Amino acid sequence: MSIEKALEKASLAESLGSAKRSNSIVDNQTESTHPNDAFDAFFLTDDNNGNANAHSSNVGEKNIERFNWEFLHEHGFIDPSVGHMKIAEEFRSIKRPIMSNALGGIEKGIERSNLILVTSSVPGEGKTFSAINLAISIAAERDKQVLLIDADVAKPSVSRVLGIKRTPGLIEYLEGNKIDFSDIILQTEIAGLRIVPAGKAHQFSTELLASNKMINLSRELSERYADRIVIFDSPPLLAATQAEVLSSMVGQVILVIEAEKTAQNIVMEAVKKLESCDVVLALLNKTQRSMDMNYYGYGQY
Fold it and tell me: How far apart are the C-alpha atoms of 77 and 230, rounded to whole Å?
């Protein structure tokens, strides 16, 4: 579908709102075919059973990362402890087609459909805002578990926005064999939500993200945990090369577009970098329309 038709479709769309792990699992040469109990534990310890809308977790209190809710409230993020929020309603609509693709990907011919990349054309369009809210919204589902990975390794924002500690993260895992993937997964106060920080700055971050170790990790997350959702917050497509590299490893890309500001030719240039991805969805953010009309536009390329 052409970008013009896609954007036209977006403007007419319905309103969507403003562990320890052994080295055999993922390495630079081989793909593991054997489950690892410690790695699995990070996806299996939560039992939402109706508690998904509360700040809660059944793991040890000392291991739980707690968010800076004062900051999140001030900046319009979803609070799962609040019964009704406009932003929560918006993301309930946004996530539906994404979840349909993620959990029905095989039938739709979408590979790695549970791996979702959230990006934008240029900085400042709201990709991290969208990635965090999408993760919180999906984690609110009674039977869903989400892993949010900060893959914006050049300018990580997830830990800063949420107010959690910056710990060794994705980069440290990819650069060597001293850290297992389970070591970098942070358990949070929201049942069903785990976070992987970006980690330290690295001059060869693009090469690390393009490495066999990262490719094998994405395959592992997709194939063994097909019923779990993995969200990557990546750099803007036209600001860094990492997003284009990561887009080839996921099944869905959410392209956040700042409505009425980002030029169409800029969006078209960004879309060209996503040709390897099965599904590219456009989310129009920061619109000035009334809530009676489309607050978020939504379309598929």
Answer: 19
Q: How far is CA 108 from each of CA 100, 122, 220, 253, 256, rounded to the nearest angstrom? A: 10, 30, 20, 16, 23
Across-strand partners of 186?
195
279-285 and 146-150 as β-strands: parallel, antiparallel, unpaired?
Answer: unpaired
Number of neighbours of residue 43 by Cβ within 10 angstroms:
19
- pLDDT digits 0-9 by tens, 250-274: 999 999 999 888 999 999 999 999 9
Separation of CA 244 from chain center: 15
Structural domains in the chain?
Answer: 3-24+65-300 (3.40.50.300)
Determine the Cα–Cα distance for residues 61 and 59; give it in Å rounded to an integer.
6
Check residues 28 and 275 and name the one with the higher pLDDT: 275
pLDDT (0 to 100) of residue 288: 58
Is pTM, for the whole model, over 0.70?
yes
Q: At what angle do helices 264-271 and 3-12 cross, to 10 degrees?
A: 110
Report the C-alpha gap between 211 and 140 in whole angstroms.
Answer: 33
Alpha-carbon distance of 274 to 278, in angstroms, equals: 9
Three-state SS letters, the chain: CCHHHHHHHHHHCCCCCCCCCCCCCECCCCECCCCCHHHHHHHHCCCCCCCCCCECCCCCHHHEECCCHHHHHHCCCCCCCCCCCHHHHHHHHHHHHHHHHHHCHHHHCCCCCCEEEEEECCCCCCHHHHHHHHHHHHHCCCCCCEEEEECCCCCCCHHHHHCCCCCCCHHHHHHCCCCCHHHHCEEECECCEEEECCCCCCCCHHHHHCCHHHHHHHHHHHHCCCCCEEEEECCCCCCCCHHHHHHCCCCEEEEEEECCCCCHHHHHHHHHHHCCCCEEEEEEECCCCCCCCCCCCEEEC
Task: Judge contact between 295 and 279, C-beta under 8 A.
Answer: no
